[in-house]
Amino acid sequence: MASTSKDNGQAGPSSQNNTPDDLEPGACPESVLNPSDYFEEFASEISSSIQERNTSLKTKSSTISEIQSEISDVNNEITSTKSSDDLQSKDENMSASASSGNLSEQNGEESDNEKDDYLQSPELVNKEKHVFILSSAGKPIYSRYGNEDKLAGLCGVIQALVSVVEDQNQDILRSIVTKDCKAVFLVKGPLILVAVSKSNESETQLVWQLTYAFNQIVSVLTLTQLNRIFEQRRNYDLRRLLSGAERLIDNLLIFMEKDPAFLLGAVRCLPLPEKARENITNAITTTCHKIRDLVFAILIAGNQLITLVRMKKYTLHPSDIHLLFNLVRSSESFKTAESWTPICLPKFDATGFLHGHVSYIAEDCQACLLLLTVQRDAFFPLSQAKHTIAEKLRRSNCLVAINDALTRNVELPTTNPLKHIGIPEIRHFMYKCKSTAQLFTSDPISLDRLQDYRIRHKEGGDIGEKKIEKLSDIDYVRNYRKFCSQIHCTSSPAKLIFRSNSDNTVLAWVTNGFELYVTFDALMEKDQAIKAVDRLLRWIKREEQRIFIMNAPTF
Amino acid sequence: MIDVKTKITSFFIFNSSFGPKEGEELKRVLFFHPNHISPDARKNQVGLCEAVVKFMSTFSSEPCEALQTQTKRYIFYQPEKGYWMVLVVTIPYATKATSAIGETRGEVLNPSIMSDLLVSAYKMFKLFMGSFKDIPMENIYSTCEEFFNPYIMSKNLTNDISDLIQGVSYLPLDKNCFFKVICLIDLLEVTYPDFKCISFVYNDQLIWNGLATNDMLTLYQYLVQTLLPKQVEKEIQGGAVAAAQRHGRFISPPDGIRTSDDLKKLVKVYLRCEDDTESKQYYLIIYRTLSATMCFTIDVNTTLEIETFRSLDAFIGPHLSTIASTISEQCALHALQTAQMLGTDQKFVYFNRLNLAYKSSASLSKLVPSTAIKPEVLSIIADIHTDRKSLGNYGEVIIKTPDEYWITGKTSNEREFYVIIQEKNANLKEIADEVKRICEAQMKGIFFYPM
């Protein structure tokens, strides 16, 4: 923030090449999150040939065993048996219940004729987006709407389509489109995932969502176990292992449609005064630095990251954090008691579980602390640590700071950024700092609004022509989807898009350091837009310590 | 021509109701290109497409448009209920990995050009053969062979903006000159009441049209892309313009009309003239002098006399050659004026959906392939052109690509205007000003908002 001289004033979307270095708000040398290009990673996850796909899911090395071997000199016995133990216990459950799987299989065949009728039933017709997950043998696992039992016929058709393309043409089925509808197919390991959508999301964006849904399943089972189940019994009915996970996928799908964090592959941080965040981080590090097996300590609130303290060398990928957000938000039980739960973070290590101590920090504060370890019986030491941390936070007034941010205290500049920035033509913006994979938007999430969206969604997910009088934040985000997909388009990417019509004016701009999306009033003049964007960037720069996590603390 | 170079693997037409029973699947295939594909492979391809169409119909009332696999794109078009035309093109699924491998995009045709190709293929078929449903089942296989084989061989496919935005190039004329053309047409229709003039074309530019807009485009494309290029080639080979040609001749049927036998060779077409409520069958007669071409229709139920054609020839020839010379003088003048106004690194395209008027900068015409638009840029324009909703009734979009191309698209009601500028150190405002300047200079009197 050294030079705010006049000549920089022209820097806006005019000349990317001379964007001054100081106008890269939020950038910092070391990042808590893995900032590797989200979009490229997604692209590389999509294998380009069948052979590649068959091998890709099995070759990853285990980060967890790496950590375990590092600390194994101390507690050798426990760790060596740990991960295989876990899998075995779940396997036993599986074989015990496998026999009843045959029954539902036969039912599936019979209902084939009713399939078309059921698809036209009010439960299923006129939905904006369907998501179906089935096994590669064609057995239904998950359907976003309706009862997947009754969808056995449809799943059979999907499985047939996928395998015809593979067997006859040695090819991979990707998508089918009509004028108003896209069907996107993703085969991952032993699963087939399909999205049928009438939304304005691009094919690529839908593939990401399916990948997330797959990761959500992996997060419950681990990839190792998922593969093993289907190696042993191709016809296995996976639903018996996923009970409870349906709700996670349901919520994740809603979350992805609404939160720009998924569009941009970034994580939202809870805006906090620099000092408060520092105190919180210190409270965690001082309490936990002696607990050797602790990999991550994460404090989150309302789908926003407050701080993340990590074991040296290891970072978390934004998509893993999104899964944690989703887990915490979907599980009411965490609110009532301290929990001890196995969590697989697919990007971190898809082959095994971390063990998480999850609890809300205090009765009067909606922040949730996750302590993730490779040690399977560390509940009590971690519980102890949590109480110490909570006590420290209360004493240093950090709980008040968190609550202020969460309830959007009007005195905070980040509560209503647009008002504070004072550019009336800007209706909405979102900003992603690429080097730290963090996101800031003009509508910091408040808990009540999240709730509101979920209630609205309960009513259906139906397509409806409603007259929009005042755009909500979600409508703005919907509007940005097309811009995001064009900016990240693999074949003909754009660096800058300025679009103006009778509804609004949108500017999307990507540089080496950031991505920025701004909605202005309709028919905004270009030079005014340039000036406004410049002022906006300066404001973000000024507030960067508050709205981003600018360091990468370790234990 | 559709071949390996353009990466078209196959093109086929099917109707599932033609062989409803098992074992009769091959009957469903009305046409299949290339010819050497085995019956089993044909069945498989069509079977996959049928399944895909059926699958999507459970979710959407709109017909299926495309199927994308890892290596290919299947493009669907259902011109009449139950009849599906499918084009299979080698277009790899776009991921960072594949584009890094060096799959040169330049060799891949833009998908929206592909689907337009199907639409124009059908329209051309309909112009000469009528609707699929009106052709008896026993004839349909041979009719498709007869039409689509030569069509595919003759079709020239390029990644060109004029293939993306298909329009009609109108020739601007001054009042007097235009009036002369209209007078000739009126005089002719009064003298020969059986003849209706349906279009008047000079070089490849339209001056007058008497068809519904849809048919006009098809006939115009037939003239400009198929018939006239052949004709011009003949004329050039014939050396100096022969005296007979100065006075004009019938160019359709191809050998002219000299004896009453030639009358049997008249081409029949299905068209909707301006007063018609639906397509009717007509004889199509095309007459050409110098660079001017006139098309006439005669109702198929009219008894034809060779005398009428001889007298028409004598009447129209001298008139038309006079008018053609006048127009040619005007054209030369006009070309000179526009050429001076535009820098060579700036390209623009204007299109009006209402009358299909199309105008582009000289550097964009097919004659100058060296300055063709990059496929990335073309694909961005294709997006703007196909996604009409995002700009609404009036709007503007400016997009900058990583290699410093600025693409501007403007719409105003049914009109569209695109400008491509390559400029390293420009900013948004400068580009917008430049576009405004080009718009004012090239499209005088045509209003775009926001300015």
UniProtKB/TrEMBL annotation, chain A:
Q: Which residues form the FUZ/MON1/HPS1 second Longin domain?
A: 293-390
Entry protein name: Vacuolar fusion protein MON1 homolog
Q: Where is the composition biased (Low complexity)?
A: 44-72
Please list the residue ranges annotated as the FUZ/MON1/HPS1 first Longin domain: 129-252
**Family indicated by similarity:** Belongs to the MON1/SAND family.
In this chain, composition skew of type Basic and acidic residues spans 83-93
Protein species of origin: Chilo suppressalis
Compositionally biased region (Polar residues): 1-20, 73-82, 94-106
Q: Which domain of life is it from?
A: Eukaryota
Domain FUZ/MON1/HPS1 third Longin as annotated: residue spans: 425-544
* Record's function text: Plays an important role in membrane trafficking through the secretory apparatus.
Region: Disordered; residue ranges are 1-117
TrEMBL record, chain B:
Location of the CCZ1/INTU/HPS4 third Longin domain: 345-438
Q: Which residues form the CCZ1/INTU/HSP4 first Longin domain?
A: 10-130
CCZ1/INTU second Longin domain residues:
199-313
Recorded family membership: Belongs to the CCZ1 family.
Q: Which PANTHER family match?
A: VACUOLAR FUSION PROTEIN CCZ1 HOMOLOG-RELATED (PTHR13056:SF0)
Q: What is this protein called?
A: CCZ1/INTU/HSP4 first Longin domain-containing protein
Tell me the organism.
Chilo suppressalis (Asiatic rice borer moth)
What broad taxonomic lineage does this protein's source fall under?
A: Eukaryota, Metazoa, Ecdysozoa, Arthropoda, Hexapoda
